[in-house]
Amino acid sequence: MPKTVIHVFHDDDHSIATGTRVAQRIQEIASDHHSSVEVLCFGPAQRRLTDGATSEASVTYNRLIDELIAEGVVVGACINAARADGVEAELVRRGLNLQVARDEFLRFTLEQATVITF
Length: 118
Fold this sequence. Notes:
- The chain has six helices and five strands.
- The chain is of the alpha/beta class.
- A five-stranded parallel sheet has the order 4-3-2-1-5.
- Strand 1 (3-8), helix 1 (13-30) and strand 2 (36-41) form a beta-alpha-beta unit.
- The longest helix is centred in the N-terminal third of the chain and has 18 residues, at 13-30.
- The mean pLDDT is 96.
């Protein structure tokens, strides 16, 4: 099954809000096209998952991440970064799939997924 991966890396307000919104919009039609959507939050954007929603964009980002998870979209983040930041339990509680980012990027390649980075 074809897959689109939205890789949210940059932590500027436009990247986090737009990246998650694009994932949500693609998810709305993915099953009609026998496709799936996955999201990977990594780098600076991963830290915005636990920043206490310090901006309107962070609030939107975190709300959309939680909505995507509730819709069954796999939303991942780097377990090593989560452990280093002391937020592993919080991200797991929210339903994020924590994996080694290196392994996830290789998996996307092996699955021939289309990866779009914000």
